[in-house]
Amino acid sequence: xxxxxxxxxxxxxxxxxxxxxxxxxxxxxxxxxxxxxxxxxxxxxxxxxxxxxxxxxxxxxxxxxxxxxxxxxxxxxxxxxxxxxxxxxxxxxxxxxxxxxxxxxxxxxxxxxxxxxxxxxxxxxxxxxxxxxxxxxxxxxxxxxxxxxxxxxxxxxxxxxxxxxxxxxx
Amino acid sequence: xxxxxxxxxxxxxxxxxxxxxxxxxxxxxxxxxxxxxxxxxxxxxxxxxxxxxxxxxxxxxxxxxxxxxxxxxxxxxxxxxxxxxxxxxxxxxxxxxxxxxxxxxxxxxxxxxxxxxxxxxxxxxxxxxxxxxxxxxxxxxxxxxxxxxxxxxxxxx
Lengths: 170, 157
Known about the structure:
The complex is a heterodimer.
Chain A: H1 8-30, E1 41-49, E2 52-54, H2 58-66, E3 82-95, E4 98-111, E5 118-133, E6 136-152, E7 156-157
Parallel strand pairs in A: 1-6
Antiparallel strand pairs in A: 1-2, 3-4, 4-5, 5-6
Chain B: H1 3-25, E1 36-44, E2 47-48, H2 53-64, E3 69-82, E4 85-98, E5 101-116, E6 119-136
């Protein structure tokens, strides 16, 4: 299989659009505007969270991340005071109207279980298959992998996340 | 708008936001003029800083005196451009070292930037700290030195 950009301008635009799509996932779940996951996934998308299959369909993914789904995930990622998902390594291969990416992130999950306030820090990798649609690049399948998790004592935390400014809504 | 101009704008906006962290960590506070408009205003965790760029620079360089070094790492960066205005949210982790400890802070910056003759500059910044942790240090460098030449020219763009 050979990969060759059509031209530099289109390739750079595709790379930026793909990065924007992957970043939009983190912004959406941290700001808890879950209906906006439409900006990230195709309507028929599937996902796998550490071996737990989710989907097909955007609604199934939204149900999973909001805890309404039937999938039994062993880590509580739903009842949070706030979360920050911070992106780092991002590698992408584009072939025409398809792309494959691996993106690292660190998730900081702040919550207050019965035992008291805590923060869990998780080292994540997302392996995505994206497709070019009329609306832009979208994730058709995602594998979400948690490589490590740590429990931290918190010095302090905000009670909730500040809203996304209006011009940044998508 | 051509794809080329959009890409150029997005890159320059990212460069401006990044220059803030690099200038801060290298204690090149005078170079914060490359980041903010002269009439810039800012809020730090809901507390308004005195208006204009000189006051913002004085505020952040004053914070710097509490630590032997700071290390800011950016992550998520989203930006929307509307003509000569742009709006961005940028996440970062700040590691602040001093007195045998490192304070790790999860930050978000919400910026309004404008296109000026000198390039994109921040006119309004809201800085929020979502979480903070304190850990004992295993080791640290004594300080962060200046950017080497010619890399340091990025702060003079």
